[in-house]
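Lab channel / #folding
Pinned by the channel admin:
"Please post every new chain as: sequence first, then the structure tokens as a reply. Keep commentary short and put observations after the output so the thread stays searchable."

First post following the new format, from NK:
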Amino acid sequence: MDSEQKIFYGWWIVLGAFFLNFAGIGIIMNSMGVFIKPVSESLDFTRGGFTLYFTIAALAMMVMAPVMGKLLERYDIRLIMTICTTIMAASFALFSQCRTLTQFYILAVFLGIGSAGSHIIPVSMMITNWFIEKRGLAMGIVFAATGVGGMIFNPLADWIITQYSWQAAYLTFGIIIGILSIPTAIFIVRARPSDKGVLPYGGESALKRQTLEEQEGVTATQAFKTSAFWLIAAVILLIAIANMGVLHHIVPYLTDIGFTSATAATLMSLHMVMLVIGKILTGGLADRLGLLKSYLICMAGLIISIVLLFGAQWMLIAVVFNVLFGFSIAVRTVMPPLMTAKVLGQKHFAVIYGFLNIFTTLGTAVGVPLSGFIYDMTKSYDIAFALYIALCLIAAAAGAAVLKMRPQEEVAAAESEAISNVQ
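Reply from TO:
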């Protein structure tokens, strides 16, 4: 590390990544729920039909995720991210001009493409590359931005919609996304420490202490052949379905059971405050307690919080739900990249995590409209919430299992068997 450098540049990367998640996830993902009822009622859409635009965006992001992983490793990250952040901001702003579901769906494709190269994948890649020590803390900080964004933009969206219109809210937020994301992509982001002539945070001593799995890891091709990769994928998918199936329907659910839209948005902001705290604490806990204990703590909190939704008509229960759910859903964003780096290593992290992010977006694509369609059919969210509890229980067991695996040994054994068969 350059001794003359007063502030390690990796912390500037953290700041830039914070802005990217703040805008790209804090607005686009964590503030979507506020728009569901106003847009659906204004344009006479069903909730399932309208939230399907988010599914389309997620599917577009899913298709582009492995492509973005390769592009980010091969080309100038600033160029790729500048293009992607511009597409993301413009498509979100243009939702303000939509009048039909088809128009929402078409723009959702571009939103997904832009998002694929704007936040989750490049942010996870940069933090993994720039930090060896304090990686969990850095990851927690940058993903805490999603909660800060949701905390600010949920009540702001409700206010703009109430005072002006949902069209004004979409346009305003699209402009904010562009102002925060595009300059960050141009001036701050760097793919790896070598781009600035420095070592990752922790220096040579940290590099020497790394395990073989962390320092070298498996290649992307090898990873796809391991059970660890597919088990991580399953964990990511199940948690994403449950998390997103609940998250984007909190505001409509609370208003359905008697809360005003302003109260529901305020409770959502409380949830986002806890999300910020939870992501920072979870990253720190991962550094101190290890990934397994931290993961199980988060999953327990997530399961209990969804159970509490069945009694959320009482204000106290609604408050406790938002506090616990907000804290626990760090397991969806902070844990997967840390688990991937720990179990599969860093050799081809961007490519491997690009493919794993397919399952994040697939889970998002399923969870958000699934809750909407269940509500449309039953006029209740009870079946959806019960389903998500079951999925979280399965994910908790699968995640605990994968963190005990040694995929490099599995790869070595497979290669040895292949050689023996040839001989």
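NK: The chain has one domain: 9-416.
TO: also worth noting, The two ends are 48 Å apart (CA to CA).
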